[in-house]
From TrEMBL:
Catalytic site: K65
EC top class named in words: oxidoreductase
Cellular compartments per GO CC: cytosol
GO MF annotation terms: NADP binding; shikimate 3-dehydrogenase (NADP+) activity
Residues that bind NADP(+): E77, G127, A128, G129, G130, A131, N150, R151, T152, I153, S154, K155, L216, G239
Biological process according to GO: amino acid biosynthetic process; aromatic amino acid family biosynthetic process; chorismate biosynthetic process; shikimate metabolic process
Cited NCBIfam families: aroE
Function of the protein: Involved in the biosynthesis of the chorismate, which leads to the biosynthesis of aromatic amino acids. Catalyzes the reversible NADPH linked reduction of 3-dehydroshikimate (DHSA) to yield shikimate (SA).
Pfam families (alphabetical): SDH_C (PF18317), Shikimate_DH (PF01488), Shikimate_dh_N (PF08501)
Family the UniProt entry places it in: Belongs to the shikimate dehydrogenase family.
Protein name (record): Shikimate dehydrogenase (NADP(+))
Shikimate dehydrogenase substrate binding N-terminal domain residues: 6-88
Amino acid sequence: MKKFALIGQPLSHSLSPSIHAAAYHDLQLHGHYDLLETATEQVEGVIELVRTGEIDGLNVTIPHKVTVMPFLDAIDEDANAIGAVNTIKKVGDQVIGYNTDAQGFKESLLERLHIKTVRQQRILVIGAGGAARAIVHTLGKDGAVLTIVNRTISKAEELAGMYPFDVTHLTIEAAEMILNQFDIVINTTSVGMSSFTNKSPIKLDRLASSTLVCDLIYNPLETILLKEAKNRGNATLNGVGMLVNQAALAIEIWTGKKPNRKLMEETLVREVRN
């Protein structure tokens, strides 16, 4: 039996085992996906399990996406540029790190908009953490016109200065005043999730009717931000597609097989609603 796993801490909220199990069953893949609660001092030991073949593929989530990197033999170009790894596989005698988060979101976004590129799309990214870093990298590389906002403006400024392409940074208040200038708004923060379910990361008073509003959060399926945008008549996109796509891309890296993403999405939505 093939053994795959997710490392991070905490993992009690993770729905990844359900969507992976559905994908493996559909692919007739004899495999199992485990949740491995992993403290920082245990990360190197888990990577060794990949090196010895005891684990065939590894996913990585908070807080270890950066922690794992020094223990890998190689890191693919996108993961290196983003500065975070979420998928690990042994290839030959090397343990290699990848990042499927960024591509997973990009594919979800393009599908929602029915377009092939975000080139020249004016995009507002809310947040300056690891998720924002991945989003800005992949969309900026594709030619999007990007602006970053964050409660702590210095963090937005720092993130904006990391890229070889132009990225603007603003305070949230300044962005709210010119919100009608953006084609896409993306929330990468945790505002709207768990204890923050009654809050929105930005006021939508000046939002243009044609703007797509996205939230990387998938539980709840509709955050306050998305609900407010929907009530205004705007198109919305939650984090379900990103989670499904990053998982599907990881499975492709590990097995070379393309899983049924629609089935994975249906499984995830059912789990969230339950």
